[in-house]
Amino acid sequence: MTAAALLQSIVASLPEIVVVTGACILLILGQLVRKGQEQFLLSASVAVVLTAAVLTIMLAGEVRPAYTGMFIADRFSVFFKMVFYLATVLTLLLSRKYAEIEGIANSEYHVLLLLALSGMMIMASAIDLLSIYVGLELMALCTYVLTGFLRKERRSNEAALKYVILGSASTGIFLYGVSLVYGLTGTTQLDGVAAAVTGARPDPGLLLAVVFIVAGLVFKVGAVPFHMWLPDAYEGAPTTITAFMSVGPKAAGFAVILRVFLNPLVAASNAWIIVAVIAVATMALGSFSALVQDNFKRLLAYSSIAHAGFALFGVVAGGADGIASVMLYLLIYSFMNLGIFGTIIMMRNGDFSGETIDDYAGLSKSHPGLALLMLLYLFSLAGIPPTAGFFAKFYVLVALVEQGFVILAVTAVLLSVVAAYFYIRIAMLIYMREPKRAFSPALSPLLRATLAFTAAGTIGIGLFPAWFLRLAQHSVFGG
Amino acid sequence: MGLPLLSLIVFTPAIGAGVLMLLRSEGAIRWTALGVAILDLVLCIIMLARFDTTTHAMQFSERHLWVPALGISYALGVDGISALFVFLSALLGAICVLASWVAIDRRVKAFMVSLLAMQALMLGVFCALDLFLFYVFWEAMLIPMYLIIGVWGGEGRVYAAFKFFLYTLAGSVLFLIGVIVLYFNGGETFDILALTAQELPFRIQSWLFFAFLVAFAVKVPMVPLHTWLPDAHVQAPTAGSIILAGVLLKMGAYGFLRFSLPMLPEASAYYSTPMLALSALAIVYGGLLALAQDDLKKLVAYSSISHMGFVTLGIFTLNLRGLEGAILQMFNHGVTTGALFLFVGLIYERTHTRSIADYGGLMKAAPVYTAFFLLFTLSSMALPGTNSFVGELLVLSAGFAANLVVGAAAVFGALLGAAYLLGMYGKVALGPAKVSAKFKIRDLNAREMAAILPLALFVLWVGFYPKPFLGIIDASVKQLMLHVHGEGSVQ
């Protein structure tokens, strides 16, 4: 690698470098922060993310390949990085009060979040199976630790242990697939692999390798049949981390899936059949299982499985609209899901956990504003217009019908009617039941502002989707 | 071009709802809501006064790009058919505020906000000239209606709200897929007028007809998709029942008129006989069910199924008289059944029972109430001189022309209507006093009269002089006929 190429690579990956460096500095500085001054950690972390965001936008003008075909900074990755920044900043802001209440507001918490962010960023930019692996593991290791961050709680420990065991197994499977690919084709670059997979007579061993890789990736987005870890991990993890995991790592997983599956060569093959089956099964399982959940976090875990299923329909559709629809879906999902998690985080105060949905009975009586926000997020998650959730679903359906998958589109909407039931069940509790106890949500100005921001996104993208739609369409790779 | 009148009509209630959120005193909230509703009604009257009845073209049109990448625009406009329902929605909106004045005594602010939001969305549905926009209005109505039924309804309100929400959602999502399929087969646009001008192959028309049918048949509702209606109507507060019966049910029929017939003319003609049969079934079955009810509200609810059967019957006769009768009957049903629900609500406020068996001899206790109640009961059974007579006569004569058996069934349904309505009135108003002996029933007060008088006016106006109403819709219906049957079909 020449010095010029190295320089170019460094420029292309400058945002990642900033985040990793920032995390390392915070790790050291964090030891010097005295108790009661955690505000500094928060401000510094947010500043690091915002710096990275500004750099990303400044570098977005052109496509920058880097590190000899391992990494690329293109518009596709910029879009996803923006979703990650959004998820991380909002999680940090939501954590401020919650982390204090739970006693986890130390520097490791912030550093791990930043490192997870850098892992996701690498995933979005990776165009080689090995760099994908590096990003995937960096992100996964951080989330394992964060899941078990409530050290004194059995549930949190159990969730982390389950997650780490199943997660390592899936990574192992993924890596095995990668090794098979390398053995058979002599390359780990996505383009090279795609050419080999869709050749005149694909090697049966190669198909096996693809199955392994699919399994590893599908695990991260929590699709059937690799979804088992998700409800436990979501329930046990600190709620802020659950919120983060449901948005950031999930979007990162989709970024990789899009890169791998919608490589023009792979898209021409019959790989969509596998994805279609997974999508239907995922959405059905998520929707039906959520019907019987009483724990709010578990319910949202199944809901996020169902949403992953819906987004996978966009992957099935493929084409420019299919890719753009998944990207837009993930962006919108980030707003509404962080919003609903924000309200749960806010309810955690004193001895009140706010984790079962019955805890919310009659909330609208004493806190009409908060109830209205929850109503907005819930109807958006259910996909009722004029919220953004509707437009997200609508665009996926347009992409599906455009490719002639009308039956799949009908399946998707019918399953989303099933899913609507458990969202409006919560709305029913909030509005149509009598309160059992007084509520004292941990409202801080910061939390209010965060919730207002997510609400603005949820309703704003719904009413004025044109700009966001164009952004997603422009960010599709190759198009 | 000047003022965007339709946007004003649609968004006045929405802005009013926003203003309400800032108010604190219940009195101020009620008066503001009423003021907004009346302002909206005045705007609608201005619109009707400036409406040109000689053309079938869309009037007061507005068009702005909304999502250009997908060919979606914000487009509003009214023709004769929609103008009538825009007016009906605004009229009933104001009456709903009056009907909820004392009936809603908790969470008044949230209720009035929901009511005004609902009104904005209903008006939007009738004004939308873009399918996507139409769907947004159509589906968004679920949210306020879910709350109106579920929060302020009767004892079984939660169940009724769920049933209403899921039924309607399930119907609508297939419509959504139909809309997207239509989009790709009709030149990648959601413009309703452009899509109407397209000629689709019969196979696609057929599929779309069924996708649309599910959505509209749930809303109308047509037997056998009607089971949400009795629950929703009975459990909803009075204003909710008035909106449901007066406007929401019309939207299903409006969907047939605006989408199924003009966009899928061949499929509509091909499937008209089964549709006629379903309509006749609804007329007779709804009537029989109404005959068996002891609950006043349920009786009116089932009578709605029967009466909406006349509307779909008229639509699928696919001839001029049938269509004009159906549209007029939609308007009439909104006025009359809205009023009947209002009357049931008024008496329920006084006695807290809806069981017909509890009533009797109300005439002595509340003569003014019973006199007006009689007027609307007679209107509901289509006595000559009332509004429904004109509509039902048109529909029946068209029904006989289309199919003798269906016509005969409809006449039988009309007889059933006389039986259950007169039976109800007799038991409630005549005979020895029952409930009224226990309760001191006060007669109508000024506010209640203000809600009732406009409706009574329309009952008699349409009954004796329907020409202006038929005049509004005439040009549009003729154009629709022309579109369905081709040239030379309008006698």
In words, what does this structure look like?
The complex is a heterodimer of chains A (479) and B (491). Chain A is mainly α and 479 residues long. Chain A has a domain at 270-479. In chain A, 77% of the residues lie in helices and 1% in strands. Chain A is built from 21 helices and 2 strands. Chain A has a two-stranded antiparallel sheet. Chain A is globular and about 65 Å long. Chain B is globular. A two-stranded antiparallel ribbon of chain B has the order 1-2. In chain B, β1 (59-67) and β2 (72-78) form a beta hairpin. Chain B is mostly helical and 491 residues long. Chain B has a domain at 271-491. The chains are: A mainly alpha (479), B mainly alpha (491). Chains A and B meet through α17, α18, α19 and α21 of A and β1, α5, α6 and α7 of B.
List the helices and strands and how they pair.
The complex is a heterodimer of chains A (479) and B (491).
Chain A lengths: L2 H10 L1 H19 L5 H21 L5 E3 L4 E3 L1 H28 L4 H19 L3 H19 L6 H32 L4 H8 L6 H18 L7 H8 L2 H23 L2 H4 L3 H20 L5 H22 L1 H29 L15 H4 L1 H15 L5 H15 L3 H27 L12 H19 L2 H10 L4
Antiparallel strand pairs in A: 1-2
Chain B lengths: L4 H18 L3 H24 L9 E9 L4 E7 L1 H20 L8 H20 L3 H10 L1 H11 L4 H29 L6 H6 L4 H18 L8 H8 L2 H26 L1 H6 L1 H20 L4 H22 L2 H32 L10 H4 L1 H14 L6 H16 L1 H26 L5 H4 L7 H19 L2 H19 L6
Antiparallel strand pairs in B: 1-2
Helix pairs in contact in B: 1-2, 1-4, 2-3, 2-4, 3-4, 3-11, 3-15, 3-21, 3-22, 4-5, 4-6, 4-11, 5-7, 6-7, 7-9, 7-10, 9-11, 10-11, 10-14, 11-14, 11-15, 13-14, 13-19, 14-15, 14-18, 14-19, 15-17, 15-18, 15-21, 15-22, 17-19, 18-19, 18-21
